[in-house]
Structure formats: C-alpha cells, structure tokens
Amino acid sequence: MASRQPLIAGNWKMNLNHLEAIALVQRIAFSLPEKYYAKVEVAVLPPFVDIRSIQTLVDGDKLLLKYGAQDVSPHDSGAYTGDVSGPMLAKLGCSYVTVGHSERREYHHEDDAVVNAKVKTALKHGVTPIFCLGEKVDVREAGGHVAFCTDQLVAGLAGLTAEQVRNVVVAYEPVWAIGTGKVASSADAQEVCAALRAKLAELYGEDTAAVVRVLYGGSVKSGSIGELIAQKDVDGALVGGASLDADEFTKLCALA
Ligand code: PEP
Questions:
Q1: Does the CA dihedral 28-29-30-36 come out positive or negative?
Q2: What gap in Å lies between CA 39 and CA 116, rounded to an integer?
Q3: Cβ(241) to ligand 1 under 6 A?
C-alpha cells in the first residue's frame, strides 16, 4: 500500500498586505519545528505579489515550508494582460498552484476545458497543480454530488497520462462549505474522496490512484482537521480562512 504524505495548503486568497504576508510566513516558520515537515508537507498560497518575498525568506533561511500560487495562465507568454504564466511561477520556485478553485470557476467563468488546460500548463512547468473540484449545495441536496465530482475529475484530467496524473493533487472542495463555516462531515468528505480515488483507479490504474493525494477543503479548522485526516482517502486539507491566522494554522498543521 503506497503511503501518501499529508499536505496542508493555506489558500490566502486576496488577503493581507505585503508586510502581513511576510510576517505570517515568519510566524509559521517559527512555530513549526523542522522535524514536523517529515510528517506533513505544509504550503502557503499567497497572492502573486507576495511570492517573490516568500521565495527570498524560504531560500534565505532554508525553510522547509513550500509555497505556490493561486492561479496560472494556460498560455506560456503573450498578450494576456494581468495573467501570470507557468514559466513565471516555476522561476519563482513555486511548488504548487491551485487550479479550478470554485471562486475562479464562479467569478472568472472558468469551465472544465480551461481548468484542464491550466492543469496541463502547471505540469508542463513542474509546478504541482492542486486541482479543485466540488459540488454546489443544490447538487448535493439532489444526491448528485458523487457523480458531479467524478465528472469534474475526468474533465479536468482529460488527455493526461497516468504518469502525469501521479503529479496532480486533487482537492475536493464542496462549494457550500467554502468560507461558510459549514465543514463537511468526515463521512461526507470520505465518501467523495474515496469515489475520486476509485475513478482514478478505473482510469489510470490502482498504482496511480494509490499515490495521488486527495485533499478536503471547506471551512477546515484546528477543531475539524483531526477527524477529516483520519479518513482513509483524505490526505490533507486546503485551508482558506484559517490559514490567515498563524496560531490557528500552525495548530491545525500540528494536529494533521
Ligand atoms: C478555500 O478557499 O479553498 C477554502 C477551503 O476556504 P475556507 O477554508 O475559508 O472555507
């Protein structure tokens, strides 16, 4: 049975000023002892404008904390005003980039084809995509959440080889749980994460499914991480609001 190192990734969204961003990284680094990282991988996903400074901190102090971005253009370069490319993220040492977050799908009208292109771009440039998917409340209430999520999985990974899929992190983020304080029950999270892994096994083989990390995201806090991560198919969390508070985030990491 393959072992999967848990990942806790903090999605800062469009929050904090530059000084606050630097201070938060320093406090996380100060609070988590080096030996902690042997157990759990921790990443922060700040706004683009903070990445360079975080790179300097991480490199300068040889921190084991990883960092990444919240979005990537599907294009490598060109006339795409305001966008940031895969090569730019790679040059800044980003380990991760979120792709397909529900806020991008909702406010920037990103469909499965765009998400798929972004997953491919990230992989091409050696930045691990954290591929987000999840149902809205009406889909869940109608009982269609598992099929909806597995369909999003299939569409987002279309055209990838099993070898490429091994380098993707999948994040199940039910839209009704994001930023609402309504965390999914551990049974609900496990149900979908297990279904996603079963679909990966069907499409790419058991060996691949066994190594892909599947995270849960949606109102995770230090009080809920323990039960969530104890689930067989939940390999960590994508954390929004709780990742902005150094004490809460490091407590959450320590309990993962
Ligand atoms: C997110 O934005 O990915 C997220 C999970 O947010 P929150 O933890 O605030 O629900």
A1: positive
A2: 31
A3: yes
Quick check: 139 and 159 in contact, CB under 8 A? no
> Which domain covers residue 207, as residue numbers?
7-255
Instruction: Name the average pLDDT for the chain.
Output: 97
Å from CA of 221 to ligand 1 middle: 10
* Residue having the nearest C-alpha atom to atom 6 of ligand 1: 240
Q: What is the CATH number of the domain that holds 41?
A: 3.20.20.70
**Which residue among 103, 135, 173, 191 is the active-site one?**
173
Instruction: Identify whether 202 is a catalytic site residue.
Output: no
Instruction: Please work out whether the CB of residue 217 comes within 6 Å of at least one atom of ligand 1.
Output: yes
Write down the ipTM of this complex: 0.98
Answer yes or no: is the C-beta of 73 below 6 A from any ligand 1 atom: no
pLDDT above 70 as % of the chain: 99
Instruction: Please give the tally of structural domains in the chain.
Output: 1
Please give the number of the atom of ligand 1 that sits closest to the Cα of 217: 5
pLDDT at 71: 98
Q: How much is the pLDDT for 3?
A: 81
Q: How large is the average pLDDT for residues 95-114?
A: 98
The DSSP output letter for 68 is: E
Is 101 annotated as catalytic? yes
Q: Structure pTM?
A: 0.97
Tell me if 1 is assigned to some domain: no
CB 152 within 8 A of CB 119: no
Give the integer Cα–Cα distance in Å for 252 and 255. Answer: 5
**SS3 of 98, please?**
strand
Query: pLDDT band at 2, cuts 50/70/90?
Result: low
